[in-house]
Structure formats: C-alpha cells, structure tokens
Design goal:
It is built from six helices and six strands; from the N terminus they run βαβαβαβαβααβ. It is α/β, with parallel strands linked by helices. It has one domain: NAD(P)-binding Rossmann-like Domain (Rossmann fold, 3-Layer(aba) Sandwich). Helix 1 packs across helix 6, helix 2 packs parallel to helix 3 and helix 3 packs parallel to helix 4.
Length: 215
C-alpha cells in the first residue's frame, strides 16, 4: 500500500521544516515547495510543479499552504507592489495550489487542505495593512472552499497562529522572549491532527497561542 502524500507549499522557514518532519515521521511521503522552486502566484508554474511531484509520489492527500510575505510599513509608505506581493503570497497562491490538487481529491472523495493564518487574519494592526489584506483574503478563501467541498469529502481547515514561532526571524525582530514563542514542532503536530481527524467531527478553524499570548 502506498504512503499518503503530504505536500507543504511554503516549506521554507522553521514551520515548513517542522511540517515536513512531522508528516514524514508519521509515515507520509512528503515534499515541499519553496519560493526558489516555484512561483506559487503563477497558475501554470504551480500546476506543473505539483504535477511533477504527483508523478513521483502519487496524488496529494494533504496540502498545507504555508506561504506568506512579511511586509511591515506605515500605510502611506506602502505601494501597490506591497499589496500585490501579499495578495500573491496569500489567496492567489493558495487558490493555485488548491486548483492543482482538488480534482484528484474529488475523484477519490477524500483529501485535506490546510491553510496557515495569523493574528492579522482576524484583526489588522498599524503598519500591517498589506499583510492583513492578504491574510483576510486567505481566510475568506478557506471558508469558501470548506463550504463548497466539505460535502464532497474534502476537509478544509484554517490555522490561526496567534504568536511568534521559535527560531523565526520574527522572534528577534519583535523582541520575543524564550518563554513566549510557539514551538514549531508542537504547531506541526496540530496540523497533522487536523489532517487525520475523522470526518464525523471536522475542525474548520484552529487557533494556536502560548499561555502568555494576549488575545
């Protein structure tokens, strides 16, 4: 029997590495797509990259869309290119990846799509206008996909990371302390838990934070 295949789109960084390790350790075939491998905002390039991976590993059972773009600046210093970059890294890239894997999932009547959100998926903050627009859009896409495809056996979930990831550049940038960051391995285990939930009780949105994180 072939292994289930988990694809992590946006596999760079500490969470991407943890996700690949978590699914591989649980017996999945895994593959990652990084910015250097594929422009996820390009529909044809994304389709081709995922087709090459499925030719080697079989159809995708779990897609984790973990791509993002960090753009922080006062609103009047943000240009159209900043908003476009966050849009491409958010809902545009996610839609391209979903479009590439959904046909085979629908044919089998099973599959999981997991999308990585953030605090700004729910509330925008000063200087985060471009990022909030992208993350809001990603959350809306996840909700729409869930309502359309859950009745056909596809589990769609949105994961809100309300905090900084240990080992990430953001911890140093925003002054995170050792006791505060989210642990990438623990976060990745929650993604696998979502992927393996029985369809009799599916979670659509999961928020993860440390005990010291305000909300």
């Amino acid at each position: 029997m072939s292994k289930p295949f988990a694809l992590v789109a946006g596999s760079g960084g500490v969470l991407g590495e943890a996700l690949l390790g978590e699914f591989a350790g649980a017996g999945y075939a895994v593959a990652g797509l990084r910015r250097a491998d594929c422009n996820l905002a390009d529909p044809a390039e994304t389709q081709q990259a995922i087709a090459r991976l499925t030719a080697s590993h079989g159809p995708v059972d779990v897609l984790v869309y973990n791509a993002g773009r960090l753009v922080i600046a006062p609103f009047l210093e943000l240009g159209p290119a900043d908003f476009e970059a966050c849009w491409q890294a958010g809902p545009a890239g996610a839609a391209n990846c979903a479009r590439a894997v959904l046909p085979s999932m629908l044919e089998r009547g099973s599959g999981t799509l997991l999308f990585t959100g953030a605090t700004m998926s729910l509330r925008g903050s000063a200087r985060f206008g471009a990022m909030a627009a992208g993350k809001f859009g990603l959350r809306g896409l996840a909700q729409s996909l869930a309502r359309e495809f859950q009745p056909q056996g596809i589990h769609v979930a949105h994961v809100l990371l309300d905090g900084l990831l240990e080992g990430s550049a953001s911890v140093l940038r925003f002054g995170g302390r050792d006791t505060m960051p989210l642990q990438p391995g623990t976060v990745a285990a929650s993604y696998r838990w979502l992927a393996e939930q029985p369809r009799s009780a599916w979670t659509h949105e999961l928020d993860l934070r440390t005990l010291s994180e305000k909300f």
